[in-house]
Amino acid sequence: MADPKACNKKLEGKVAIITGGASGIGEATVHLFVDHGARAIVVADIQDEKGEELAASIRFRCTCTYVHCDVTKEQDVELLVQSTIQLFGRLDIMFCNAGIMSKSLQTILDFDLLLFERLFAINVGGVAAGIKHAGRAMVKANTKGSIICTASIAASVGSDRHTDYVMSKNAVLALMRCASTQLGPHGIRVNCVSPGPVATPLLCEAFGMGAEDVERSFARMYWLKNNGVLKVKHVADAVQFLASEESQFITGHNLVVDGGFHPSAP
Q1: Which of 7, 28, 69, 119 is the most buried (most CB within 10 A)?
Q2: Pfam families from the xrefs (predicted)?
Q3: Boundaries of CATH 3.40.50.720 in the chain?
Q4: What is the pLDDT of residues 18-47, one digit of tens each?
Q5: In the CATH scheme, what is the code of domain 15-195+231-256?
Q6: Cα distance between residue 262 and residue 266, in whole Å
Q7: What pTM was computed for the model?
């Protein structure tokens, strides 16, 4: 009889990079990848203290290292991929998760182009660099890898504020669709996960609220009832699915994780 624990090791032997991995969705994904048997995980972030603490906390369960990486600097991303392959011999999963939200409301009539450029450098340029260098490494090694990008339901529903953020997540979807077409012939899958509003440190800071208050404010807006509220674990579960062989024939897909979120939900 098969060992039930062994059956759950859906990422056994895999080597993964997770950008923005020190907190929020990235951190939850790190823990889930460990649970599913990943051989090695590289946590990439600019939150050095949090990243080092996270890596140290799971080293007894999985080979894990933290790398300071500013995704707006292509050289940082290129070195991140190169060092991962030098350390572990391969790269199977690239989770391009690093991102920020607008520092102001960014309505179109008060649009700040400097803030827009900074946000796009992280949310779009950082993802492009991640796909580019992970894709190059996977093609060179003939690795049928999986690249996952964090988008958002904001890209589908629009907003009366945070215009630059909504624009950036639309760009991530377009980038994913192009990359999936171009890397598909090499057996490399590229997909997006689009969370609804989830109480990450990023969202809590943007709303100036604690996690419980953020969750409470959105709780009534899910069409899916009696299932609690959206948590980072729900998003990490979707990422794990897209990273594993369970999704081996899925590419160019935007997996929405939002419980049917809608502001008018009863």
Answers
A1: 69
A2: adh_short_C2
A3: 15-195+231-256
A4: 999 999 999 999 999 999 999 999 999 999
A5: 3.40.50.720
A6: 9
A7: 0.93
